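Listing S7. Sequence submitted for prediction.
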Amino acid sequence: MARFLSGIFQPATDYELAGWLFLKGLAQVYLAAFLSLAVQIEGLAGANGILPFHELLEEGFARHGYAAWLLLPNLFWINSSDMAENNLLNRWFR
């Protein structure tokens, strides 16, 4: 049974290069997205941004109480200041 299950998840040798290239390309897309977010986070979700995190979290808590922690899971429940947003993203890229 273990031999059968391990065989299911082994890629065919013909597709190893294609799978490797796909994963590397996907990683580059994610890197570009997060680098872009690091530059734009303050304007998007900062105190004077398009959708400030602190207002979103306050509204969620007002509507749903403590269930909002499960409905809107993120680290910004602890601190949603501009400095916290910038620090979180900067730590990812060090």
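Caption to Listing S7: primary sequence and predicted structure tokens for the chain studied. The chain has a mean pLDDT of 85. Helices lie at 2-8, 16-45, 53-64, 68-71, 82-92.
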